[in-house]
Amino acid sequence: MSTWPVVPAEPIPLQPTLAPRSLGRLGLAAAALLALLLGGPSAWALGWIGSWPGPLAAIAWSTVGLALLCNTACALLGTFLVLRRMSLLSDAISHAVLPGLVVAFLITGRLDPWAMLAGAVVVGMLTATGVQAVRQLAQLADDASMGVVYPVLFALGVVLLSRYAHHVDLDTDCVLFGLLELAALDTIRLGTWELPRSLLTLAPALLGVLGFLLLAWKELLAASFDPAMAAAAGLRPRLMHYLLMALVATVAVASFEAVGSILVVAMMIVPGVCGRLLSDRVTGTLFWAVLVAWVAALWGYALAAWFNTTVAGSMAVAAGVVLVLVVLLSPRHGVLVDAAHRLGTRLTIAGEDLLKWLLKQEPGYERLDSAPQGSVPPAEAACVPRKHCLEHLGGRWQARLVLWLLGRRGWIEQAWDRVCLTPAGRRRAWHLVRAHRLWETFLEEHLQLAPDHVHEPAEQLEHFLGPGLQQELEQQLQRAYDPHGRKIPKQAEEH
Amino acid sequence: MLKRPDSPQAEAEPGRQPPAGTGPGAPVLDVHDVTVAYHRRTVLWNVDFTLQSPSLVAVVGPNGAGKSTLLKAVLGLVPLASGSVRFWGEPLARCRRRVAYVPQRESVDWDFPVTVRDVVLMGTYARLGWFRRPGPDEHRLAQQCMEQLGIAHVADRQIGQLSGGQQQRTFLARALAQRADMYFMDEPLAGVDAATERVVFDLFKQLHAQHKTVVVVHHDLRSVPEHFEHVLLLNTRVVAFGPVQEVFTPQNLQQTYGGRLSALEQVAEALRRTEKTP
Amino acid sequence: MWSYNTLVVLAGAASLGLLCALVGTFAVLRRQALLGDALAHATLPGLCLAFLLLGVKHPLAMPAGALATGLLGVLAVAALQRWGRLRPDAALGVVLSVFYGAGVMLSRVVQNHTTAGSKAGLERFLLGSAAGMVWHDVALISLLALAVAAVIVLGYRVWKVMSFDSQFALALGLPVSWLDGLLMALVALTVVAGLPAAGAVMVAALLVLPVVSARLWVHRLETLVVLSCILGVAMGAAGVLLSASRERLPTGPTIVLVGGACFAVSLVASPQRGLVVRLWRLAQFRRRLALFQLLQTVGELQQEQAGRAVALSQAAARLGWPPSRTAALALQARLQHWLAQPEEKPEEKHLELTPAGREQLERLQQQLAPEPGSLSVSENAPDGRGSAR
Asked: In terms of domains, do A314 and A359 share one?
């Protein structure tokens, strides 16, 4: 079947729906499958870790808890980075934080957490502005300017570290990969509580992120969607941008010791992307992003325990697996749902073409077509050998599927090796003839196509003409005959 | 129709009275010697005009004449190399709430996960101030604005699923929700369908009837005399400014478009606009 | 004077710089600057897998594994954009972090299986160790550079069209997607070849740094390629020499820092786009604009007062400038004889516009804001309209 450029692969939504686009059966099936695939392993992981001996399980839970804190903070911030199309800034900032840490250490001479936080935030902001400045000054594309700024800063950090601070326990390994598996063991006493030390950095970071989102929600939203309008309305989009960058740097630093920068990058980008695929609202995107981040934390921990490897790396991998599942199975934008829709459309078109073809095989068709309305009794249902039908459809597996689907709709009957139109099928076929001729007339009249050029596009468009549009088209055209001089059947004739 | 009990217009002398809170007789908009340069290129040169009373103003000029830059400069979105802008006799900082801006449609990411309602609600954000969320009043206002522009039936759709005309209407509804006294619109009629065009021109009329000022960057020269009161002919500098019937003359247009205002130019404009339509 | 080893490393780094610059020029022009980065990170799982499967550091299997997962990463970036509706930045970020996470995970598994410290291996993967280069590596990199140069020279016109306008190239009937694939394969080969010496982060930077620095100096593609190759070689060589001359200066980061310095210098000193030139131009523009405004204001005030001289304070008030700035500019204008101080009013500074000042006013206006049309169009346009104003 030749394609006509204007016709999209998906059916055009002809009637504006009031509610947000309903998912449909396919979407629901995809959603259920996705829920099963995400929930099943999570439940298994929970059960498996729960079955460990007491002390081991306690450590596991507190490790997972730390990861949840960190992932939540990252997912919330990262969603905004993804929506603002600057997700790679998280990568840049989390790498570039290194020189900030080293410089702060060199100035204070010890591993003072506050000084290091300050140093990291300063360098993080410098990266954000530096990328922008380099882009403007050197007139580079966004990615190129990022590709210049962050390796240089990272290299600076490495050189500073190995030259001046090589004796310190601040190795790149730890910065990059984190030691989440040990984070739960490194505890401090606070009153009667024995708490992991990372909790003291992660919890405030998460609170900071939550506070920022709650307090500056609408400013952040406006600045992310339309900075120009936000600036004109005095909503301070620049301030929002820099606050966001500062928070990204803060979270990167707060979590680097526990989880390392790869996990920060993965958790800033992957959940946001998943969230966007699962929802068309910002709040929904955030919700799904956090959920994905939690699932990734759980899976990652189980994966790491199973293979006896790093938790941070496994969580990044788990996030990747979740992303693949979401890309495939997202009810709205998933690859499988899209493909199924496309297949459905193709089958529908093939089936409708077959109905029309069957109608034209009826002995009385020509007379009925040219005669005045109602003067010819409907012809006997013509039956066509099944083999011919399959040949007409191209004879692949899809052809059998089409016949089966048509039979299920009650449009054709299959007896022995013959295929017959049912009355309902004949009505449907006449409806298609009508749609086809209406379109031909419309194309000739409104797009000034020559009569010998209207058949092909109409052949495609006839499948996209709901009753409402059909009526509108008919009223607008007010013509009884199509460009080939054949009568356009009226609505009543179909019955 | 939007009613505003605390409307700044004095009821006694509708139309010609400057809003309360500013000196009597202060012009609505006073753009004084504004020069804007990007790098070494002068984009706007000594742009100087004064709008005494609320009006519908079309900003007209060839591509690259600095029309969009003029709006941005007036709204403080690009730095001025020199000059000053006053609204009702006051600097922008003191009356931001009374000024609304409608950027070009292409300037935002229409894949952003917000609905039409969310976008229109953004219009109310500026007046809410920090920490406050839009409440029932704001939702009602947004609903009104959407109804006025005929997009209430798509209120809960994600904005990427809209047609070009509906997207433009969404932007206009957002500006309306700002309940400003002066509107700056950057090509609100670029690439929209005929129905939207009618709605937009109607909106201009209604706003004008409420003594608001609307400054529109406009491309379709043919519709200027019918729908606008004042026209600003711009080509880096002001070629002419004034009431349409005085200023919108062939000589001035000739000067603005540098003698290239021919059938060809119109065709090129038309092509450019169709290109913009997705 | 230099040890044999230093010479090997020097040759290796220089040839690597050359290779990266050659490939990087076209990658950056095709807006694929960060793809090298994602690719470099995506090679780690391949390295680990190859090692896990074979149990030894096989000289062929390791690069092959790296190449395989690297290309898989590139394909994943393309697939996520095509079918997953992801933005380019998000797709790159996802692949970079997830593949790298997988690599870290596998490297720990490797560590568990072998007694050899693979922790150092990871750090080497990221930062490289040029000191470990042997002639064998140098020869390989040089051969690769030669091959890439041959590909580029042979198809030079095709690459040129591709790198400036892929739509046009498509219209010409060039197989753009195949050529993009070829470019990606070259990037992948380059990354894998450079990985042991420079490390993942650094090899990605080496792809970008020479070309973005060179672009600040030259405009034509031919000169761009040549200059970025020169810069690439220079960066590699200088970095190696620097790191050899000091203790505890890792080679890869040093090369990148040298490259960064080179870029920074270009950014500041480039004759057309450099920061210095720009600031100078901006200052000049501001000065001229201020001068223009002063002369214009004096002229206007003079006209309003029927030709009488204008008090300095009056001009300052009209312009809204502080008196000191007005006075300084007025002095400048007086020294140029554009403004004159009439004799009869000595008590406060009064000024009037001289005929030379009027000419200067016209000139400044032409300089600052050329009449539309007089910039590019023919001769006859300006004088007609010039008199009209």
From this structure: no
Range of the domain at B57: 29-276
In this structure, are A313 and A345 located in the same domain? no
Q: Tell me if C83 sits within 8 A of A241, measured CB to CB.
A: no
Is residue B4 assigned to a domain? no
∠ Cα C184 C190 C195 (to 5°): 125
Q: Does residue B214 contact residue B208 with C-beta atoms inside 8 Å?
A: yes
In CATH terms, the superfamily for domain C4-272 is ABC transporter involved in vitamin B12 uptake, BtuC (1.10.3470.10)
Q: Which positions in chain B touch C286 (Cβ < 8 Å)?
A: 81
Nearest to C101 among A166, A313, A335 (CB): A313
Domain encompassing residue A190: 41-333
Contacts of A319 in chain C (CB under 8 A): 97-98, 101
Q: How far is A146 from chain C (nearest CA, A)?
A: 8
- Please tell me the number of Cα atoms within 13 Å of A16 on its side-chain side: 13
Q: Which residue, among B34, B36, B255, would best test binding to C if mutated, counting the most C CBs under 10 Å from its CB?
A: B255
A459 and A412, same structural domain? yes
Could you give the residue ranges of the DSSP H alpha helices within A308-396?
311-329, 335-361, 365-370, 386-393
Residues A416 and A355 in one domain: yes
Residue B194 amino acid letter: A
Residues A224 and A274 in one domain: yes
B47 beta partners: B34
| Nearest residue to B159 via CA among A336, A230, A226 | A226
From the list C107, C123, C145, C138, the residue with the least C-alpha distance to C199 is: C123
List all residues 6 or more positions away from A72 whose beta carbon is below 8 Å from its beta carbon. A206, A290, A293, A294
Contact A18 B153 (CB under 8 A): yes
CB contact under 8 A, A266 and C267: no
Model ipTM?
A: 0.82
Kindly report the CA angle at A379 between A378 and A380, in degrees rounded to 5?
125
Per DSSP bridges, beta strands A193-196 and A383-385 are: unpaired
Same domain, A369 and A484: yes
Q: Which residues of C touch A152 (CB under 8 A)?
A: 205, 209, 256-257, 259-260, 263
Q: How many CB atoms lie within 10 A of CB A84?
A: 20
Q: Specify the domain boundaries for CATH 1.10.3470.10 within chain C.
A: 4-272
Across the interface, whether the CB atoms of A280 and B158 are under 8 A apart is answered: yes
Q: What is the CATH number of the domain that holds A475?
A: 1.10.10.10
Q: Which two tokens stand for residue A44?
A: 């298994």
CB contact under 8 A, A177 and C92: no
Chains adjacent to A (≥3 CB pairs closer than 8 angstroms): B, C
Distance CA B64, CA B260 (A): 14
Q: Are the CB atoms for A362 and A421 separated by under 8 Å?
A: yes
Q: In what order do the strands lie in the sheet with C310-311?
A: C310-311, C350-353, C339-340
Distances (CA, A) of B171 to B105, B106, B118, B126, B189: 8, 11, 11, 15, 12
pLDDT tens digits in sequence order for chain B, 278 residues long: 444 444 443 333 344 444 444 555 789 999 988 988 877 678 888 899 999 999 999 999 888 888 999 999 999 999 888 888 999 989 988 888 899 999 999 889 999 999 999 999 999 998 887 778 888 999 999 999 999 999 999 999 899 888 888 999 999 999 999 999 999 999 998 888 888 899 999 999 999 999 999 999 988 888 888 899 999 999 888 889 999 888 888 778 877 887 555 544 554 555 455 444 43
Please tell me whether residues A310 and A230 are part of one structural domain: yes
Domain boundary among A293, A316, A333: A333
The architecture in CATH of the region C276-370 reads Orthogonal Bundle (1.10)
Measured distance CA(A269)–CA(A75) in Å, rounded: 7
Crossing angle of helices A54-83 and A282-307, rounded to 10°: 140
Domain count, chain A: 2
